[in-house]
Each structure stands twice: as structure tokens, then as C-alpha cells.
User: Which sequence fits this backbone?
């Protein structure tokens, strides 16, 4: 409870503090209503049978007016409390989202993004329905109100009637509350154990409703995915239902004890009335207070607080878990010291749209070993490769040889397990986050899974670069990437949002998306990026245009260092140097003609591919 109070007061001091303060005030007004109701009822007979000159009128009217006033205030406070809760909801939502996104984007490296531990912790922090913490904060106000009201009502019952009855009922009221919170705690532990299955259910839902909604239906996989979702969701929820079923008997016993004490209290009250020990005012006040006390057990609020506290702890652990996952790389690397102190989070890393124009970089991979976190297979095994400043290097290799992995290492997204990636003499592993982010801004990549953003066509090309400052550049790169006519056909040209679900939105074919991604990389080069990386840039293009497009592309990108990865030899053959990646190392390198003359692996692969074209050698 104290952790939540501290959290609400530090994150939203006005709404959080105001909510708790108002809750206390609301408890006081509710208690005042109870006492005034007793007073009015007690005074009614005397007033009704009153003297003919109505001398008791002003006092009775005053009592009724006070009751109406306090009752109205109580109602107003309830409305204000609900408004403040809504306000707190917004404030806290922002804080939680910021905390989670700050952790996820705290580093320019990406190991933690693939970590199940980090994903589970983030899911726990968000809680069921993503709202555990703020539901708990609203419950905190309710709990403050109900507990103060319970104590106040007990004092009224004790002072006017019986202290043992007051304390007995207070005890069973809190027993009910404690029991609800305890069950919720057990449910939390059970739910935490099932977060992985729950996450799988979430993925299935996201796939079916978003990412792959169209494809799954076109190919008739929707029922399969639905069954899978139901299966995973049930297996995450069944243990929870089991906990609830197992607790049914004890829950019934706790509520029965509470009701029994209330029944005894009412029976004793009736006995006292019969014995003439209590007047009408006392009876009315005590009865109202007894009911208030008995009904103040707020198991729901206590349970929500339990859940919120558990989520809050997960939220506080999250950055540590993410750091530990990233630090796991250090252990893999044999403890080479790293400068993690520079991890400052997105709020502190200023985004600087203009790319630093520092010319084409010289990049060296020196005896690089790499295995993915959690894997026991070395993808790269002592790879050494140099991309000289301004050189165009082609990279070929079989599926799974490690070509895309090499691109991740070049970008510094992962650290090598051993060895170094050195850019202009600086080891990427020694860069702090801001320096690494600056290096990544010097890259213009087209990866296999290129971005398809539901933004305008213009934003898809320019991203953070200011397009309005260079409209000619936009036209030029669109022409080079041969996407200009497709853009002209869109309902609103460059300003068309590339998402069919938007009014006046447009859609591109797979090949047209790829051309748009190429235009984006060219635009970045023009804006100052010095290293162009094309990973299968022509996979979605028809064979006729691919080689011609890539050649045109490289011509326009002169003056940069470029890495061209492709299974299609027609794409890489004009590179200054072609490297063959095999078994984690560069097995061969040279020009297209030199490699063919050597008769090695490259020549074999080339001949195999060429034989599939009519006439033997495409573009040879
Ligand atoms: N995030 C990851 N975690 C664990 N292993 C991975 C991860 N990404 C790739 N791998 C593994 O690393 C190896 C190299 O993959 P990579 O994608 O770099 O190959 P590639 O040469 O680009 O393949 P392709 O030609 O099919 O695109 C593969 O065995 C793959 O299964």
C-alpha cells in the first residue's frame, strides 16, 4: 500500500495526493450523514407531536438542513473523486507507458528486445488489460475512504452501544478484506507463472487481428489460429480458475462469519431496545453505523491494490531485467569492459535529424565471432572483412550463412561474442548509446524485412529528414528507384497514407514497397549517410529490372561505402569486390571475373544459378 501511495504522489502529486485527501474527506462526510440521519430520526417524534407554537421548529429545520447539506457535499465529493480518478488514470498511463518504452528503447542495441524475460516482465508491469497499476491507484482512494469510514463507524457503535460489538464487526470486516487480497495474491503468482502462455495467446490474437489478418483468411488458416488462441488462452486461465475454485469453501466461511457477527450485533441491538436501554436517536444512529461498518469491507479494492503492487514491482524491476539481459552479452564476450554508463533512455537522447556528413566510413570486422543470446551455435567464426571507404562490396552465401547477422553487427545492434567491428579506427563496442545512435544515423539500410509504415508515401521515404527542404531530392530518388509512376497513381500522390483502412489511403504491391524502401535508402545517402547496406534489395522485383535498378542505384550512390547482399549474382557482379560467406568466415573474395576464374565456391554457385536461365548465363 505504501509503495502505491509513494508512486501516486511522486508520479501525479496533485491528482494522487488530491485523490487520497478527498477520499478521507468523503469518509468524514459519509460518517456525518450517518450521525445526522440518527439525529433527525430521533428528533422527528418530538417535532411531529410538538407544541402548538412550534417552538422546536428552528432546531429541527437546522438539523434537516445540515443533513441535506452534508448529504449533498457527500454526493459532490463522489463526483469529484471520480473526475480525479480519470485524471489520475491519464497521468499514470503516461508514466507507465514512458517507463516501459524508455526501457525498451534505452539502448541502441537490441538484445533485450528478443528476451522472453524482458517481455514477461513488461507484461506483468502492464498487468491484465494493461491497467493494473492505475486500477490499483483508484482502489487506493476507495480503500482509504472505506477504512476510515469503518473506523469512524466502529467508534460510533462503540460509543453509543457496545465496544465488543464494534471491535468484533471491525475484525470480521477486515478479515473479509484480507482474505480477498490474499486470494488475489495467490492468483497473481499463478498468473505470473502463466505469462508465457498468455503471451503466446496475445501473439496469436495480434496475428489474427492485425499483422497477418488478410493472409490467414485468404489461405484459410483463420480457424486454426482461432483454435490455437483459445487453447493458449485457456491454458493461461485454467490455473487461475482452479485457484478460485479451491478457495470457494474458505471464502464462503469467511463471509458467513462476517454475516454471523452482524446478525448477533443486530440481535443485541434489538434486545437493548426492548430493555429500554437505547433511545430512538441512538438506535437509528447505531443501526446506520453498523450497516456502514459491515459493508465497508472492500475486497475488490484490496484485490486491485494487490495486483497493482505486483505490477508496480514488475515495472520497477523492468529496467534492471533489460540491463541484465544486455549485460549477458558481456559475459558471453569474456568480460571485456563496456561503456554501458551511456545508456540514458530516449527522453535524454536528443534526436538530431540531420545526418552527420562525415564521408564514407572505413569498416573492418576483425576476427569476429558471434552467437545469438540464448543460442549455442556460432553464426560467425572468426570472420575478417574490410569495407574500404567508398568501396562497393558484394556479399553472397547460402541461406542461414549469417549475412543479415553481419549487417546487425555492422550497425552495432549486437556486440560480437569475440573480435571487433571497427569504424574509422573506433571499436563499436566502445561506443556509448548516443555515439552508437550517431553511427546508426550514418547507415542507409534496406533490409530483407524493410519497413512498411502506415504513413504517407513521402514520410515512408524521408522518415526524419526534412522533405520540404529538398523536394527535388524526393523526385530524383523516386525516379532512380522507379517508383515515381506508382506514386503518381496514388489518390493523393506523395501525401497518400499507405494504408487501405484510412480514407483516401493507398496500397502498393510487394515490389513497389521494395522500390519505396530503396528510395528511402537513397534519400538517406543524399542526406549524408555514408554506408549503404542493401540486403536482398531486389528480392521482390522482377528479374528484368533488378540488375539494371541496382546498377543505377550504385551509380547514384557513388562516394559512399556500400555492402550489397544478394542471392542473385546479377545484382552483385558489378561490385568492386565480392565476398563469399561460408561456415562463418569469408571463404573467398575477389572480382566477379577473378572468382569465376578461381573455379571455387562462387563459380559453382554462379554456374548453378546461370544454368536455370534459358541460354545459360544471365547478363554474363
Ligand atoms: N534473432 C536470432 N536469434 C537466434 N538465432 C538467429 C537469430 N537471427 C538469425 N539467427 C540464426 O542465425 C543464422 C544466420 O541467420 P542470418 O539471417 O544472418 O542468415 P542469412 O545469411 O542472412 O540467411 P538468408 O540468406 O536466408 O537471409 C541462422 O542459422 C539463423 O537461424
Assistant:
Amino acid at each position: 500500500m505504501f509503495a502505491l501511495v509513494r508512486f501516486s504522489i511522486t508520479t501525479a502529486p496533485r491528482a494522487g495526493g488530491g485523490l487520497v485527501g478527498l477520499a478521507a474527506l468523503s469518509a468524514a462526510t459519509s460518517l456525518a450523514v450517518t450521525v445526522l440521519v440518527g439525529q433527525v430520526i430521533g428528533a422527528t417524534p418530538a417535532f411531529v407531536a410538538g407544541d402548538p407554537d412550534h417552538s422546536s421548529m428552528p432546531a429541527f429545520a437546522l438539523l434537516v438542513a445540515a443533513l441535506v447539506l452534508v448529504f449533498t457535499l457527500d454526493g459532490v465529493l463522489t463526483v469529484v473523486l471520480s473526475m480525479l480518478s480519470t485524471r489520475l488514470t491519464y497521468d499514470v498511463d503516461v508514466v507507465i507507458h514512458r517507463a516501459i518504452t524508455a526501457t525498451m528503447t534505452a539502448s541502441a542495441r537490441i538484445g533485450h528486445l528478443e528476451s522472453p524475460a524482458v517481455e514477461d516482465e513488461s507484461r506483468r508491469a502492464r498487468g491484465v488489460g494493461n491497467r493494473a497499476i492505475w486500477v490499483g491507484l483508484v482502489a487506493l482512494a476507495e480503500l482509504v475512504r472505506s477504512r476510515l469510514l469503518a473506523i469512524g463507524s466502529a467508534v460510533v457503535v462503540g460509543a453509543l452501544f457496545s465496544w465488543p460489538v464494534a471491535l468484533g464487526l471491525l475484525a470480521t470486516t477486515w478479515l473479509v478484506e484480507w482474505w480477498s487480497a490474499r486470494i488475489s495474491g495467490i492468483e497473481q503468482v499463478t498468473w505470473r507463472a502463466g505469462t508465457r502462455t498468455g503471451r503466446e495467446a496475445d501473439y496469436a490474437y495480434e496475428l489474427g487481428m492485425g499483422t497477418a489478418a488478410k493472409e490467414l483468411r485468404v489461405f484459410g488458416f483463420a480457424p486454426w489460429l482461432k483454435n490455437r488462441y483459445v487453447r493458449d488462452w485457456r491454458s493461461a486461465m485454467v490455473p487461475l480458475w482452479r485457484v478460485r475454485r479451491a478457495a470457494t469453501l474458505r471464502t464462503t466461511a469467511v463471509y458467513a462469519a462476517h454475516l454471523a457477527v452482524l446478525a448477533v450485533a443486530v440481535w443485541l441491538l434489538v434486545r437493548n431496545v426492548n430493555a429500554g436501554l437505547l433511545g430512538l436517536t441512538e438506535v437509528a444512529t447505531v443501526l446506520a453505523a453498523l450497516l456502514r461498518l459491515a459493508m465497508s469491507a472492500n475486497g475488490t479494492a484490496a484485490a486491485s491494490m494487490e495486483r497493482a503492487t505486483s505490477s508496480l514491482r514488475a515495472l520497477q524491476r523492468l529496467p534492471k531485467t533489460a540491463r541484465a539481459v544486455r549485460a549477458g552479452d558481456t559475459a558471453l564476450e569474456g568480460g571485456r569492459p563496456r561503456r554501458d554508463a551511456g545508456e540514458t533512455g530516449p527522453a535524454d537522447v536528443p534526436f538530431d535529424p540531420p545526418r552527420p556528413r562525415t564521408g564514407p566510413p572505413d569498416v573492418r570486422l576483425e576476427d569476429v565471432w558471434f552467437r545469438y543470446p540464448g543460442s549455442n551455435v556460432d553464426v560467425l567464426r572468426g570472420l575478417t572483412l574490410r569495407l574500404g571507404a567508398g568501396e562497393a562490396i558484394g556479399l553472397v552465401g547460402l541461406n542461414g550463412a549469417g549475412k543479415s547477422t553481419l549487417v546487425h553487427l555492422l550497425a552495432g545492434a549486437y556486440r560480437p561474442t569475440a573480435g571487433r567491428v571497427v569504424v574509422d579506427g573506433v571499436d563499436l563496442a566502445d561506443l556509448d548509446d548516443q555515439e552508437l545512435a550517431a553511427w546508426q544515423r550514418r547507415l542507409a539500410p534496406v533490409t530483407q524485412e524493410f519497413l512498411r509504415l502506415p504513413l504517407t508515401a513521402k514520410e515512408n521515404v524521408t522518415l526524419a529528414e526534412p522533405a520540404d527542404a529538398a523536394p527535388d531530392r524526393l523526385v530524383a530518388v523516386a525516379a532512380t528507384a522507379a517508383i515515381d509512376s506508382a506514386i503518381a497513381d496514388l489518390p493523393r500522390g506523395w501525401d497518400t497514407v499507405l494504408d487501405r483502412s484510412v480514407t483516401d489511403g493507398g496500397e502498393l504491391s510487394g515490389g513497389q514497397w521494395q522500390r519505396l524502401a530503396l528510395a528511402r535508402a537513397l534519400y538517406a545517402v543524399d542526406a549524408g549517410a555514408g554506408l549503404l547496406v542493401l540486403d536482398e534489395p531486389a528480392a521482390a522485383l522482377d528479374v528484368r529490372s533488378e540488375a539494371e535498378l541496382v546498377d543505377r542505384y550504385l551509380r547514384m550512390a557513388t562516394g559512399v561505402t556500400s555492402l550489397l547482399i544478394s542471392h542473385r549474382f546479377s545484382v552483385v557482379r558489378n561490385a568492386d569486390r565480392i565476398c563469399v560467406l561460408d561456415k562463418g568466415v569469408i571463404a573467398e573474395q575477389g572480382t566477379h571475373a577473378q572468382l569465376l576464374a578461381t573455379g571455387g565456391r562462387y563459380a559453382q554457385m554462379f554456374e548453378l544459378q546461370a544454368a536455370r536461365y534459358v541460354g545459360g548465363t544471365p547478363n554474363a
User: Anything to note?
Assistant: The chain has two domains: 1-332, 363-615. Residues 1-332 form a domain with the ABC transporter transmembrane region fold fold (CATH 1.20.1560.10). The CA atoms of residues 64 and 177 lie 35 Å apart.
